[in-house]
Design brief:
CATH topology of the largest domain: Isopropylmalate Dehydrogenase
CATH architecture of the largest domain: 3-Layer(aba) Sandwich
Mean pLDDT: 96
Bound molecules: 1,4-dihydronicotinamide adenine dinucleotide, magnesium ion
Helix content: 40-55%
Shape: globular
Structural class: alpha/beta
Low-confidence stretches: none
Strand content: 15-25%
Radius of gyration: 20 Å
Amino acid sequence: MFSLCVIEGDGIGKEVIPAAVEVLKAVIPDLYIHAAQAGWQTFQEHGTSVPTETLTAVRKCGAALFGAVSSPSGKVEGYRSAILTLRQELDLYANVRPVRSLPRLSPRQDVNLVIMRENTEDLYVGRERMEEDSAVAERVITRRASQRIGRRAVEVLRIENFQRLTIVHKANILPLTDGLFRDTVCATVQEMRHPGENWAVDELLVDTAAYQLVSHPHTFGVLVTTNLFGDILSDEAAFWCGGMGLAPSLNWGDEIAIAEPVHGSAPDIAGRGIANPIAAILSAALLVRYYWNLPQVAWQIENAVRRALEFDIQVSGSQLKPDIPTEAVLKAILTRLND
Ligand code: NAI
Ligand code: MG
């Protein structure tokens, strides 16, 4: 039996996650579902953005689907971002962010890459302090974290049958931190190579990588990089999916994985029933492929999304028709699951 902890979160999380759960139920009939809470509303009600029961539930289920959470725009005493808390508490060290062309919505049809973002260290831990009139942020890169993201990058490369793995860094300016990252990842991936495998390993400075993700996105396979660079590059690359409402991700540790659409809680459209559920549905497919190891079922979901976009879902220009209901997109995808 497969167990899933469902954390809808705030805003459109409450609209897109139920749609993704419907799709999962359709392809995995014996799915056991446990609902849990996290986010800004949870903080306001319980004084914590991630209650202990939620951490326990995710640990017990192993797999979780997370919607999005709202954050206050200024510092609020006692508040800590829910998704950062989950990533850190559960040691979800790899953030898998595939960017694939989708029919009719993507600006080009030949993009198929995955950004592997280290998910536990770097500037993202937010260790900042004031020293008189200077503000200081601490950036720690470790050999251990670099090794394990390198290993995961090769696992993903094999599962997806990519031929190129690119290490992205800024070691020319940061020879200690990014030098350690580059050298460790490089050694780790070379050690993992099986006889007969001939995928290529190369490296790019992050600024060059940013440029080439715009100029030559079709030439990439797996990119592996540190936390903050991965955050920025993956949002940049998500342009090629066709928009933020379409980009999926997976936070993947050794025992636990949490899938989440890349987008936020979209307060501007929340509550209207028009949020695009595709990013959430494609995130659910990542759990199916990488965590439950059911590649055929993951393909079934992704194929249904592609077919529905090709034939059923109304598109105007290269965007979903404005105000198309979440329900209508879901229904189109459910109908295409057996194509
Ligand atoms: P956002 O991703 O929520 O929205 C950006 C724009 O994209 C908005 O115009 C929104 O309507 C649109 N959009 C996003 N997802 C969509 C979908 N599925 N269908 C249709 N349109 C969609 O980012 P924003 O506005 O910067 O942040 C809003 C809130 O979300 C903030 O409180 C922020 O902190 C939070 N946030 C949470 C994240 C998470 O939970 N992982 C990630 C990013 C932001
Ligand atoms: Mg981001």
